[in-house]
C-alpha cells in the first residue's frame, strides 16, 4: 500500500529489505555473511557469545561481528540467523565455523537464489520463511 507522499511522487519511499548474503546485499556492504543454526528461544547475541566461548584461541585479529536483523526458516523448520563480519575475514570465518562445530550447529550460506547448509542440504530462498526485525 502506497503512502500519500509515494502516490504524489510516483516512487516508493523507504528501504527495501534485502536478504543478508545475497549478491545485492554483498555489493552494498563490506562484510561476509554466515548463517548459523539457531533456536527461537535464544537471541542472536547470546548465540554469538556461545559460539565465541567455544573457540580458544580465537583466530580473528581485527574487525567485528554484526547482527543482520533477519531470521530464515528452512522449509523443514530449521531456523538460521545471519551473522555479518568484517575485518579479518579468514579469522572470523574460522572462529564462527569452529564455534558452530563445537556447539553441534549447522552453518549455511546464500548461493544465488538458494541457501546451502553445511550438511549438504540446499533450498530455494523462495521456499523459506524470512522475517526481518
Strand segment tally: 8
What number is the mean pLDDT? Answer: 88
Largest sheet: 8 strands, antiparallel
**Tally of individual domains:** 1
Radius of gyration: 16 Å
Query: Could you name the ranges where pLDDT drops below 50 across 5 or more consecutive residues?
Result: none
Portion of residues in beta strands equals 25-35%
Number of helices: 4
What CATH calls the topology is Alpha-Beta Plaits
**N- and C-termini, Cα separation:** 20 Å
DSSP helix fraction: 25-40%
Q: How is this structure best described in words?
A:
This protein has 4 helices and 8 strands; from the N terminus they run ααβαβββαββββ. The protein has one domain: Alpha-Beta Plaits. It is of the alpha+beta class. The longest helix has 14 residues. Strands 1, 2, 3, 4, 5, 6, 7 and 8 form an 8-stranded antiparallel sheet that branches. The radius of gyration is 16 Å and the shape is globular.
What features would you highlight for this structure?
133 residues; alpha+beta; Alpha-Beta Plaits; eight-stranded antiparallel beta sheet; 4 helices; 8 strands
Summary, kept brief:
The chain is α+β, with helices and mostly antiparallel strands and about 130 residues long.
